[in-house]
Design goal:
The radius of gyration is 18 Å and the shape is globular. The strands form 2 sheets. An 8-stranded mixed sheet has the order 1-4-5-6-7-8-9-10. A 6-stranded antiparallel sheet has the order 11-2-3-12-13-14, covered by helices on one side. A hairpin with a 6-residue loop joins strand 5 (141-146) and strand 6 (153-156). 35% of the residues lie in helices and 24% in strands. The chain folds into 2 domains: 7-93, Arc Repressor Mutant, subunit A (Orthogonal Bundle); 102-346, Penicillin V Acylase, Chain A (4-Layer Sandwich). Helix 1 (10-20) packs parallel to helix 5 (64-76). The longest helix is centred in the N-terminal third of the chain and has 19 residues, at 22-40. By secondary structure, the protein is an alpha+beta fold. The chain has helices spanning 10-20, 22-40, 44-52, 55-61, 64-76, 80-87, 89-93, 178-186, 191-199, 246-251, 259-277, 284-291, and strands at 3-7, 102-108, 111-120, 128-134, 141-146, 153-156, 161-166, 206-211, 217-222, 228-230, 236-239, 316-324, 329-334, 344-346. Residues 110-337 form the Peptidase C45 hydrolase domain. It comes from Halomonas huangheensis. This is Peptidase C45 hydrolase domain-containing protein.
Length: 348
């Protein structure tokens, strides 16, 4: 991945995204066409029809982002509904398919760290983008994600950062689609504003780990109703792919794979050890070492191809990010963190 700079009007940002990543966006559409068919029996035109139901919710809560999607659609010669469908892929696919990811936040010597592995299907590995976006009237931001999507994991120039854990659930209701809500968080100027996005409702369940450079951190198990809150415990928050808060589990039924609990236990153990052993200031390489952990069985945080799993359950770590929000710095490793020794160092 190379860093792509995007600026101008919302429409121009969308055009620039698609101009520089046209082939990757088209390839992403092909990937999700196959995924929707394999997992839900939907063809792309049927998935587009499903996605159009979310357009009024976006128009109500975040209308500016429709311009950006329109710019992308025009540049690739497609329809707005194509880009909308990419950005609603979680709402369409995570009601039927599993996702991955292991995330943590840690306050260490006055520095707020936020990190995660992003695990997904390997056929999307070459369609990932790192974007630095300067949109009118909002903070400059970095987002690491999939071509054609308006946002995912990242931070902004105000030190606001967000990580994501997928939650498999049949629940879907009112709110912003997950990836649109993530972009909205990255355009916030304060931790309180970012919290308000999570509180306002997200269409489908997910876990947003929100933090800032001042040392605030909170996990939000979002859905269309009141989100579950996960506060730091001894300066640490961890999360994988199952719901844990009483608030969320009261309203939402999730269907995680068994490895989510195993990874959570391993992540807790490693993160607590990292916290307790860091007498000196933490460095990004040490966090990547944690993310690159390998243990026998389903506990491994760094996920590799496993031929013993069914094809629709194959998840691999496609990138890892480590953020020092107090320094407004993001380190990126594209591919497995255990195999990469050099990181891209980025600033919003």
């Amino acid at each position: 991945m190379q860093l792509t700079e995007l600026s101008g009007s919302r429409f121009e940002i969308g055009q620039g995204h698609a101009r520089q990543h046209r082939q990757a966006i088209i390839a992403s559409i092909d990937v999700y066409d196959r995924l929707f068919h394999d997992m839900a029996g939907l063809r792309w035109h049927e998935a587009r029809r499903d996605a159009e139901a979310f357009l009024p919710m976006i128009e109500k809560r975040f209308p500016e982002i429709i311009e950006e999607m329109s710019g992308m659609a025009e540049e690739i010669g497609g329809d707005l509904s194509d880009i909308l469908t990419l950005n609603c892929r979680s709402e369409i696919s995570l009601t039927r398919a599993s996702g991955g990811c292991s995330a943590l936040s840690l306050l260490n010597h006055g520095h707020q760290w936020l990190a995660q592995n992003w695990d997904w299907r390997a056929d999307q590995a070459n369609h990932l983008v790192a974007l630095r976006i300067s949109a009118p009237g909002v903070p400059r931001l970095l987002t690491i994600g999939e071509a054609g999507m308006v946002g995912k994991i990242g931070l902004n120039e105000c030190g606001i950062g967000v990580a994501l854990n997928a939650i498999r659930s049949a629940t879907c209701g009112e709110g912003l689609p997950i990836h649109v809500a993530l972009r909205r968080i990255l355009e916030c100027r304060s931790f309180e504003q970012a919290e308000a996005v999570a509180e306002d409702g997200v269409c489908a369940p997910a876990h947003f780990l929100i933090a800032d450079g001042e040392g605030h951190a909170q996990g939000y198990e979002v859905h269309s109703g009141t989100p579950g809150r996960i506060p730091p415990r001894d300066d640490l928050i961890t999360h994988t792919n199952h719901l844990v808060s009483d608030t969320a589990t009261h309203w939402v039924e999730d269907f995680p794979k068994p490895d989510s609990w195993a990874r959570q236990a391993r992540l807790d153990s490693l993160a607590e050890r990292l916290r307790d052993e860091c007498g000196e200031e933490l460095v990004a390489a040490r966090v990547f070492e944690l993310l690159g952990d390998h243990t026998d069985g389903e506990e491994s945080l760094c996920r590799h191809y496993n031929a013993q799993l069914p094809a629709d359950e194959q998840m691999e770590t496609l990138f890892s990010v480590v953020m020092d929000l107090s320094e407004k710095t993001l380190w990126l490793r594209h591919d497995k963190p255990c195999q990469m020794h050099d990181s891209m160092r980025l600033h919003p």
